[in-house]
Amino acid sequence: MNSTAPHTLSANELAAIRADFPILSRTVRDGKPLVYLDSGATSQKPDPVLDAEQDFYLQRNAAVHRGAHHLAEEATDAFEEARHHVARFVGAQPHDIVWTSGATTALNIIAYGMQNATLGRGGDAAKRFALAPGDEIVVTEMEHHANLVPWQELAHRTGATLRWISVDDSGRLRTEELDTVVTQRTKVLAFTHASNVTGAITDVAAFVRRAKEVGALTVLDACQSVPHLPVNLTELGVDFAVFSGHKMLGPTGVGVLYGRTELLEALPPVLLGGSMVEVVTMTDTTFMSPPQRFEAGTQPVAQAVAFGAAAQYLGEIGMDAVFAHERDLTERLLRIADLPGINVIGPLDAVDRLAVVSFTVDGVHAHDVGQVLDDYGVAVRVGHHCAQPLHRRFGIASTTRASASVYTTEQDIDTFVESLQQVQTFFQVN
Amino acid sequence: MEQLYQQVILDHYKNPHGKGLAELDANQLGGESHQVNPTCGDEVTMRVQFTGDGTQRTISSVTWDGQGCSISQASISVLVQLVEGQSVGDVEHVADVFRQLMDTRGKGFPADDEATESKEDLLDDANAFTGVSKFPARIKCALLGWSALRDTLASTGASADAHAQGIKHC
Ligand SMILES: Cc1ncc(COP(=O)(O)O)c(C=O)c1O
């Protein structure tokens, strides 16, 4: 690290990036330029990603890991090359990267794999994943439902107890609770790298340190972090991590389960069928090594190839630059906190925080806020953003959320802020 | 925007009818329903009180509490206005016509249809929701209260009674 300020994107660089996203130049609602501030839900896709997917279908489409023909060979190469690109992007080994249909599936594979271990599948090696009454699973109060519900259900099915780290009034995790909530009884510590509601970035090092002290497995939900900041899973030292392609400029239908080699080798598979087996008799089956062991059935091959292209695209811009750019946007977005009648749910400073800003407007329901913003061409998300417990923690049912990405401009934010004031005018609350 | 947020809707939103739950009279048929819109977390609790029997059964009062957007809150208020004092059979008909309106994709009932005038007369203030039907994400908001009403009609047996009697008459 050098001490100079991180390089952010110049106006020319940003314009060049935007030119890669055809959708950003379309209009909505009777000719208004699109101001897309819903990247936290799903990102837009640049030409190189779209081209990679199309090129795969046009030139190399075939079943992978099967068939002895030329196309099958090229398809397999493209599929595995994509795994390399995505692995390098997050500082992992390719064989530790399992393709899934998304982060939600990846989290369920871990939770159900642990249940299978609890049922005795996977032999002695899998015993480290088995749960019993008295064991504890620890999550946090700011999880997306995808990193909460599978653990709740796993606890119900195994008799383990679910506990959680709470959130403070500023929307950050109370890291100091690790010492009391995470104990020798804790078997799993599952937590998000960054909140999809408050934008708060978790002190992963503190979580990993505490988990190691008590011998608990760590599961990192990296859905919101990997698209927006430099992430090196090996350096972070987590045991498992998950993220989705569609939030990081890639296609829908593909995501990643990352696991440390020895853990993937020990975890019993969940989805069973073709492409993941060695010897099958009428009564028993042996499974392939990871990552194939977890990739049953036909994979989203073209999507994985395009996901690889997305990782390359972001890698070429450089995640330091992406993060610096989005930090500028965060500061600009947070200006709404100074407007009368606007309440931001989340940290009010741009430190350790993503450009994800959720808020309420006094006297106007989130649905109505979103509707009026939409009339100005501003796309935001309204509701609980799949994080009901976090909203309940703040005593609210829903918020409006503006979230940025690498292609977001300061002009986008300014249009959003102006339109937000129109919301208050329309509902006569200012 | 003005097409969606008609003044009638904003007025009902600011001064809703029937808001604040009343105790149900245990001597009369009555019921309660709690409905949630899972996409936005909006909710309503509705209490419906009936008088009379069979086809003569009417809705004497509807009270409710809840939180939600202007569309859902105004729609419940309009519902109260439309159904209080009406027979169960008539209320089911209005509910039906309102659901039909929500299927018109912002166009409203066709001008060249004979039935349109009587449907519009029936819906009264609820015609203001025509613009809502253009926004698929908001139709659920407009229907939240109507779902609660339908649920109480079913759970109290008021609906079945009205129809059973109806069949006898045929
Ligand atoms: C923090 C977080 N975790 C998990 C998910 C689930 O991702 P997916 O729907 O791609 O499986 C999301 C997406 O909304 C998210 O923001």
Count of folded domains of chain B: 1
Rounded to the nearest angstrom, the radius of gyration of chain A is 22 Å
- Overall number of strands of chain B: 3
Residues in helix, % of chain B: 40-55%
Strand order of the largest sheet of chain B: 1-2-3
What's the CATH class of chain B, please? Alpha Beta
The helix-strand sequence of chain B is HEEEHHHHH
What is the number of independent domains of chain A? 2
Query: What is the CATH superfamily of the largest domain in chain A?
Result: Type I PLP-dependent aspartate aminotransferase-like (Major domain)
| Distance, first to last CA of chain A | 46 Å
Share in β-strands of chain A: 15-25%
**Largest beta-sheet details of chain B:** 3 strands, antiparallel
CATH class of the largest domain in chain A: Alpha Beta
Rg estimate of chain B, integer Å: 16 Å
What do we call the CATH topology of chain B?
Sufe protein. Chain: A
Give the CATH architecture of chain B. Alpha-Beta Complex
What does this structure look like?
The complex is a heterodimer of chains A (430) and B (170). With 430 residues, chain A is an alpha/beta fold. Chain A has 2 domains: 11-45 and 318-426, Aspartate Aminotransferase, domain 1, CATH 3.90.1150; 51-315, Type I PLP-dependent aspartate aminotransferase-like (Major domain) (Aspartate Aminotransferase, domain 2, 3-Layer(aba) Sandwich), CATH 3.40.640.10. Chain A has helices spanning 11-19, 47-60, 70-89, 103-118, 149-158, 178-181, 204-214, 233-236, 261-266, 301-317, 319-333, 366-375, 388-393, 410-426, and strands spanning 27-28, 32-33, 35-36, 97-100, 136-140, 161-165, 186-192, 217-221, 240-244, 255-259, 277-280, 285-287, 342-345, 356-361, 378-379, 381-383, 399-403. In chain A, the strands form 5 sheets. In chain A, strands 4-10-9-8-7-5-6 form a 7-stranded mixed sheet, with helices on both faces. In chain A, strands 13-14-17-16 form a 4-stranded antiparallel sheet, covered by helices on one side. Chain A has a two-stranded antiparallel ribbon with strand order 1-2. In chain A, β1 and β2 form a beta hairpin. Chain A is globular, with a radius of gyration of 22 Å. The relative contact order of chain A is 0.16. The model of chain A has no long low-confidence stretch (mean pLDDT 96). Chain B is an alpha+beta fold and 170 residues long. Chain B has a single domain (2-159), classed as Sufe protein. Chain: A, CATH 3.90.1010. Helix content of chain B is 46%, strand content 16%. Chain B has helices at 7-14, 70-83, 88-102, 115-123, 136-155, 158-169; strands at residues 30-37, 42-51, 58-67. In chain B, a hairpin with a 6-residue loop joins β2 and β3. Chain B is globular, with a radius of gyration of 16 Å. Chain B starts with 6 loop residues before the first helix and ends with a helix. In chain B, 39% of the residues are buried. Residues 166-170 of chain B have low confidence and may be disordered. Chain A binds chain B through residues 365-368, 371-372, 375, 382-384, 388, 391, 397-398, 426-427, and chain B through 1, 4-5, 10, 39-43, 67-71, 135, 138, 141. Pyridoxal-5'-phosphate (PLP) binds at residues 102-104, 144, 146-147, 192, 196, 221, 223-224, 244, 255, 386 of chain A. Pyridoxal-5'-phosphate (PLP) is lined by residues 102-104, 144, 146-147, 192, 196, 221, 223-224, 244, 255, 386 of chain A.
